[in-house]
Design goal:
- The protein starts with a helix and ends in an 18-residue tail after the last helix.
- It has one domain.
- It has 13 helices and no strands.
- The longest helix has 28 residues.
- The protein has about 300 residues and is mainly alpha-helical.
- It is globular, with a radius of gyration of 18 Å.
Length: about 300
């Protein structure tokens, strides 16, 4: 049976979200034996090799001029910032806790896209985005020992959200010129020299030694989370409808929390439930408000949002 285009777009988007939902739990698995620097940089090296092969085999044209500078912004946020910061954060915080804070990402990306694209967002957008940020910060601080207290892991998680939001917002605009998966692939290739260096440093400091489960988790992060998952996600966004597909990303933190319980045995506490619901609700409202005035975007990737790493 051949699915209609809209149904195909939604299913591909769901496949991408499902792939990304394992990122935080598998990072938590990997950091049990491997150094966070090795995980954050090494997985980018794996993805860069695959990206380079894909670009070469399909004979993609080289970016030019300012496109390289813009790719550097994407690489700094998505390839370098988010993987490294989350890897270090998850050495000392539960995956479910990380999932709640990272659930702020759709709203943060929408905010970065509004600022980058100089859009005139309604006051409602800024209100619900602010509420979502407050909910994430309150959850993180309460989980850290009391209101107003944030430990370094929460700061790393919030930093990863900011980095990814900026990277995805710039990537969404650049994808109109280079193509969706091509943008991610070029960003991976551009960042590869630095990530190879960091991988070498991590190996010199702490030679990697892990069991089969940890290596399988690392392989997933490099092959699926940082590369193949983007193909399904971006293709789903391209087929559309963009409003329906992009909002499926809001399912990701729910899935991540479920995987944290099933795979890692983490208990689901009431603060996690309430925090997750509040952040996801505000993120969903922010995405809906932003998409509402743009009923017919010039390009299906105009409202590109992350689902990661």
């Amino acid at each position: 049976m051949i699915l209609p285009p809209q149904a195909s777009g939604i299913w591909l988007g769901l496949a991408g979200v499902a792939a990304f939902s394992f990122t935080v739990p598998f990072t938590k698995v990997a950091v049990a034996s491997l150094s966070p620097l090795f995980i954050g940089s090494g997985r980018a090296v794996v993805a860069a090799i695959l990206a380079g092969l894909a670009l070469a085999l399909t004979r993609q044209r080289l970016p030019h001029g300012m496109q390289w500078a813009r790719l550097a912004v994407v690489a700094a946020g998505v390839v370098i910032g988010f993987p490294l910061l989350t890897s270090f954060a998850l050495t000392s915080t539960p995956a479910s806790h990380g999932a709640v804070v990272i659930a702020l990402l759709p709203a943060a990306t929408a905010t970065a896209a509004v600022i980058r694209g100089r859009e005139r967002a309604p006051r409602t957008f800024w209100l619900v985005t602010g509420l979502g940020a407050c909910a994430a910060i309150v959850f993180a601080s309460l989980s850290s020992g009391g209101f107003g207290q944030l430990n370094w892991t929460d700061l790393l998680l919030l930093g990863s959200v900011a980095a990814a939001a900026i990277g995805y917002a710039e990537g969404g605009m650049l994808a109109r010129e280079l193509g969706a998966w091509q943008t991610v692939s070029w960003a991976l290739v551009l960042a590869s020299p630095l990530m190879v260096l960091l991988t070498a440093v991590s190996i010199a400091q702490q030679p990697p030694s892990a069991g089969l489960v940890q290596w399988m988790a690392f392989a997933y992060l490099g092959v699926i989370s940082m590369f193949l998952g983007f193909f399904a996600w971006y293709r789903g966004l391209a087929i559309g409808p963009i409003a329906s597909v992009s909002q499926m990303q809001l399912i990701q933190p729910v899935l991540t929390i479920c995987w944290a319980g099933l795979l890692l045995g983490e208990s689901l506490t009431w603060p996690t439930v309430f925090g997750g619901v509040a952040v996801i609700f505000c993120a969903g409202a922010a995405v809906r408000v932003r998409l509402k005035p743009a009923a017919a975007p010039a390009h299906p990737l105009q409202t590109l949002q992350p689902a990661k790493d």
